[in-house]
Amino acid sequence: MKKLIFTFLINLLALSSFSQGVAQTITRDQNQPFNLGLLDGTVIKRTAFTEEGSTSLPVNNCIVIIKTANGKVYDHVNGRIDLLTNRLIFTINGQDLIFVSPIQQIFFDSCYDAALSGAIFKSGYPSINKQNSGSLYQVLTDGKATLLKYYSVQWHDDKPFNTNNTTRIYKTTEQYYLYLNGQMFILEKNKRNLSKLLSIPADYISKQKLNLKKEENVIKLVAYYNLL
Questions:
Q1: Which of 159, 181, 211, 212 lies 20 to 30 Å from 102, alpha-carbon distance?
Q2: Contacts by 15-19 with C-beta closer than 8 Å and gap 24+?
Q3: How many whole angstroms separate alpha carbon 218 and alpha carbon 174?
Q4: Separation in Å, CA 46 to CA 39, 56, 132, 199
Q5: What is the pTM of this model?
Q6: In sequence order, what are the beta bridge partners of 68?
Q7: What is the pLDDT of residues 21-70, one digit of tens each?
Q8: Are 121 and 105 in contact (CB under 8 A)?
Q9: Which of 117, 58, 118 is nearest to 89 (CA)?
Q10: Higher pLDDT, 166 or 11
Q11: How much is the CA Rg of the chain, to the nearest whole Å?
């Protein structure tokens, strides 16, 4: 019995240390529906309004494994990616917290969203558009050419005429990138510039009947290049 109590206390202390060392509680109240306090003192606030859509990926938590920039690994974390801050939100004892240590990699070990189960997100890529080296990308295929997908969230406010009721509507968007020879390249919506970047003849794509509007075919093409 004493051994069980000792083990419980050790686990409790470890949990407390983890929470205090890398996260700050996300608090909610009526005036500030979402008030995110970071350890560096920065506070991200949203104006009080009704919200539609989601700002996280996925909407609900998955079981993830985190590797920080300094090499620490946290296993079996219950979390999701916040697309507004590009950080990880995780939940302990029903409480949402924000992971503030720089993250090198997130592995979605188990997820209700089948499309994300087994997914790997990494940082450390060159800056492009609004992203920097700390931004997280989903790695679709890796090698001498790496196919990446970046998720962001866009929104617009809907305020019916002659009312004070504002609804902020969020929409998740996706953008594909190619990391090649130490550089980041943005892929066109139809991915037509991919064959030029990889120097793969257009007739190969047509012979293989690869519709590059489909993600699985883009993955196949980059994987083929990595085997050359």
A1: 181
A2: 15/92, 18/74, 19/92, 19/97
A3: 14
A4: 18, 15, 23, 46
A5: 0.80
A6: 103
A7: 444 444 433 333 333 344 333 333 445 668 888 999 999 999 999 999 99
A8: yes
A9: 58
A10: 166
A11: 21
